[in-house]
Amino acid sequence: MSHPQDLGLRAQARAVADGSLDPGELLDATLERIAERDGDLNSTPVVFADEARAMLATAPDGPLRGVPLTLKDMFTTPWRGAHNGTSREMLAPGPSGVFTRLRDAGAVIVGVAQQHELGMGTTGRASVWGPARNPADRSRLAGGSSGGSAAAVAAHLVAGSIGSDSGGSTRIPAAYCGVVGLKTTWGSVPRAGYTGGASTFSAAGAFGRDAADTRLLAEVLAARSLPEGDGARLRCGIVAPFWEDLHPGVEACCRAALDAAGWELVELEIDRVALAGPAAATRLPAEMLAGLDSSLLPELDAITRGLIQFALLTPAVRMARADRVRGHLRRQTARAFERVDVLAWPTSPAPPPPVDAPLVDLPSGPAPADPPNLRQATLGNLTGVPGISAPVGEAGGLPVGLQLLAPWGEEARLLDAAAHLERALC
Amino acid sequence: MEEFDRFAEAALAQLGVPLGDGDLDVLRFVSAVFAPAIAALDAVDLRTLEPEPVIDPSRAPA
Q1: Could you report the predicted ipTM of this complex, rounded to two decimals?
Q2: Residue at B59 is within a domain
Q3: Cβ-nearest to A326 among B42, B53, B55
């Protein structure tokens, strides 16, 4: 018999429900697999063996009964506070809204997923636990900030994980690790017990190995049905600035995926869309850091500390300008969705960078990975709309993701599109 | 660059955030990476933008 973690999320849930898989054996096998395989992958640095067994003992019948999951360090559980990838407890233990949704669905939380410290990076390099490595190539990074979630799902340690996305933090690691990552619509998932709860950018994210698994997890998070539809007949918006300065292998994979999908492609302009990155880079750190205890700074990675110090130098008038740009982009993006069903461009402009030197090679030259990743990601966070990264192939043996955005509340459409891509590319 | 250094040291000192060894070098690097794009934000003519006077991130724009 194959290992139960080689089953997907739906298959695990079905097997538990029909009695063909004992949930206690599934949990034991999961804990053993994490112990055996995580190692320098570093995806799941904190494991909850006793607490997971206690959860399983009282797990209600639900769509995820007995299914092991991991949870990003931004969410609290009744037995562990949220540390946000640092040494400090940022929120006290207690049942976060996300934990409660998962528990009530019967899921079992088996550990904390590694994350980039304070969520302030797209590589997963800097963390109190060290970097999360990429299952496709352990000399490469898993992405961030929810790198542990993506790596654990890709490595078959768990079939699903919960992350978050303030500036691509679900979509980018999903692309780097070759899994599906869904950023939910802002505010559609409870925000209590979440270190990003006060942020106007941050939203919970769901990771699965395919679109259907991710749909199941997202339905539990949002406590609503996301019914399957036809992902084959979509009008897909192409916005030129997001298709510029790309690694050739990434661009080729993403263009081939759009060809294979057969969607109607519509070239369109979103006025001032190039300002999304700088507007987000201005506003997002201020929101994330508003409650930060500055005594933590000496403990942080030098780059994280530099980003914080840079954010502290931001004049208030620039914040107001960022908000004006944000309002403009929210309206312009809503207007774009009057013409198309989804927007599409590469999730990350380059494959995952090396652990030892988080730089990416782009036609414009080598660059730190974060700024071009933020350029591709932040429109979704500025506007609050849902986004997804779907795996669409490999460049040089490393996974590539295509990002899709949909109108407010249209997660189901994104999952339909991702499912269609899976069929078109197989 | 000296001007930036003086500004950064003075502003962070005012905020009670000391600069440790090497911090200024990293801060210069971060500024060099992000400042060019942010300059575009500083330069945009706000009169050409469509206002959304009260942004409510919990809703799609009206």
Answers
A1: 0.95
A2: no
A3: B55
